[in-house]
Design a protein that fits this description.
single chain; 217 residues; mainly alpha; Endonuclease III, domain 1; elongated
Length: 217
């Protein structure tokens, strides 16, 4: 059995949240989008793919298919040509077309704004739904857990869990609901800039003084 990770107390967690707020007050989703529909499609495409690649392919995709009504009647091979650089592009092309069809047929052409409805869409799991609800509509439905959030919450001692469901539940319990949306973005950005999976920049990290995983000096 793996050793239990060190958990920080609530006072330390609050201190770390203040530090993140100070250094990353404007953190937001890295996926470029203009509305909830574009964010939904971009997030489906971003699964196991970099945001950079997704941001490079979506402008042409959205120019050709501006909304769900357009994508719902798209030819799958034409879509595959446009998103061919993303991972698993064939399956994702089928999913985004099927999602567009479901939105048109079941939701009056509007992206649904509930977790229950979103996770019924092809290619949409809880993380994607949390991203769309939180970023596009300001609805704190849950806590977004990607690879960065999973890594940082454990390193910082906010949680002691390995699977996304348990991490999300722990963060929702320990962090005020009003902080869920922004904090997830802050953790993701801090993970990209400083707390890398390999070679974290602990010597330059403002969270290091109270981080149980920090190696400084």
């Amino acid at each position: 059995m793996a050793a239990r990770k060190t958990l920080v107390d609530d006072a330390t967690l609050t201190k770390q949240l203040r530090r993140l707020q100070k250094i990353l007050p404007d953190a937001t989703c890295a996926l470029v989008h203009r509305n909830g529909w574009e964010l939904l499609i971009a997030t489906i495409l971003a699964a196991q793919c970099t945001d950079k690649v997704v941001n490079e392919v979506t402008p042409a995709l959205f120019e050709r298919y501006p909304g769900p009504a357009d994508l719902a009647v798209a030819d799958v091979e034409a879509v595959q040509t446009l998103v061919g650089r993303v991972t698993f592009f064939r399956n994702k092309s089928k999913n985004i077309i099927a999602t567009a069809q479901a939105i048109m047929n079941q939701h009056g052409g509007e992206v649904p704004r509930t977790m229950e409805a979103l996770v019924e869409l092809p290619g949409v799991a809880r993380k994607t739904a949390n991203v769309v609800l939180g970023t596009a509509y300001g609805i704190p439905s849950g806590f977004v857990v990607d690879t960065h959030v999973a890594r940082l919450t454990n390193r910082l001692g906010f949680v002691s869990a390995d699977n996304p469901v348990a991490i999300e539940a722990a963060m929702m319990e320990r962090v005020p609901k009003k902080r869920w949306i922004l904090l997830a973005h802050q953790l993701i950005l801090h993970g990209r800039q400083t707390c890398h999976a390999r070679g974290p920049k602990c010597e330059a990290c403002v969270l290091a003084p109270d981080c149980p995983s920090a190696e400084v000096g």
